[in-house]
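Dear Dr. V.,

Thank you for agreeing to look over these. As mentioned in my earlier message, I'm a first-year student in the group and I'm still getting used to reading structure tokens, so any feedback on how I've presented them would be very welcome. I ran two proteins. I've put each sequence directly above its structure. The first is here:
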Amino acid sequence: MPNYLIGDVQGCDAALQRLLHKIDFSPSRDTLYLLGDLVNRGPDSLAVLRRLRALEGAAQCLLGNHDLHLLAVAHGVRPPSRHDTLGAVLQAHDRADLLHWLRQRPLALQVQGWLLVHAGVLPQWTAAQALALANEVSAVLASPEGPRWLQQMYGNQPERWSNGLQGAERWRVIVNALTRLRFCTPEGRMEFASKDGSAAPPAGYLPWFEVPGRQTAGTSIAFGHWSTLGLLQRPDLLALDTGCVWGGCLSAARLPADASGLAAQLIAVECPQEQKPGR
């Protein structure tokens, strides 16, 4: 029963279909783990959501920042961006069902020893803590209070984690780390302005996975979110946002069937966009 990790789809349903054909995906045999940003900026977010929802347990999907943005727009918390391509979802006859399904998606998962997140993990968190904190926010988001919590989700403060944080501030830090993080200080102070690759960090900051002594250093982590970083494969690190929506590739990684130490097998399809939306 192969497990496949898939990077940011961002509404590129045609590319997703080609990728599933290339890996000979069978929902009765295989499981997909999508690393968030299922929607937005690409041409057919509605088809992506319908496809993945119909696969039920064969497609396990994380929430990314664009997915949360869709929920916030749908609930009137945020205005649409001029670069959004979410109109078909918002006007769909099955909108309510799709949005309800999306709200139930997790912020982190663990499969075959890999910790899966959309963006990153703060250096002070262990893998077990990251999963527990993700589940804490997921429970709030999936509850009847979820739409009201979306009103408090946005903001860059607090900029670092503290075990004493409570309520909306606590959940905001968790969401920011798991869905927006690229750079942070060794103390875990997050920076959100820079979208450059890992070779050009802001002064005083590091890519989150390069922080010395991070608590997840012994854990294999897969993530997306960082298209300017591109594909990065190490024994304990796998970055899979290969910029499909920007005319790059949509990438998948087939995890080895056992703990043999073999590297994940990478599969990709090109994703040319006739009109490249603004970043």
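The second protein is here, in the same arrangement:
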Amino acid sequence: MSRPRIAPTPPVTARGVRTRDRLVAAARVVFEREGYLDARLVDISKEAGLSTGSFYTYFTSKEEAFAAVVEVTQNDLLHPGMGRVADEGDVHAVVEASIRAYLHACRRNARLLALLEQVAHVDPAFRELERSRDETFYRRNARAIADLQDRGLADASLDPMLTSKALSAMVGRMAYSYFVGPPSERRSLTFEQLTAGLARMWTNALRVPDRV
């Protein structure tokens, strides 16, 4: 496979934006229903209520359409919309709210995450997409850890980036296992137990002081 264009030239009109969005939404439905290999461009166009010619106005290949769907998923995971925390100075509450928002995003996108994992195993371009997403998480969390260290709320001896990679990987793989793995994973642990447990492990690893 050739490397997909992740951000092709966007449509210049509002109508064009709406049409492309329809195609991306339709592509997601088809990919989740048929799988990546069996998805066809004609099926995506039909799902969107458009002609195949319209598809080629915005995308040049199935790979490019899948990359657009993945981009929407990645944005949702990176910006899941964390709810308001009553006391933003409460590190434990902020960590738990952040993890809860991320887990909700994983649940929303579980089928796409499973599909991306499969495709990434055989296509270097999509493997690079996964790596790039992970690096964004790592850098963002490393900045948050360094800020806690500067405020005297986390173990100053920890390397922020190394700690970020370890803790982010823990949360990411646990989320994948919980939402994409066998149903037994979800029967053995509630969503709230998973959230609270991961948050506690995160703050324990950083040696954040307990609530007074």
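From my reading of the second output: The first helix runs from residue 14 to 34. Confidence is low (pLDDT under 50) at residues 1-7. Does that match how you would interpret it?

Kind regards,
E.
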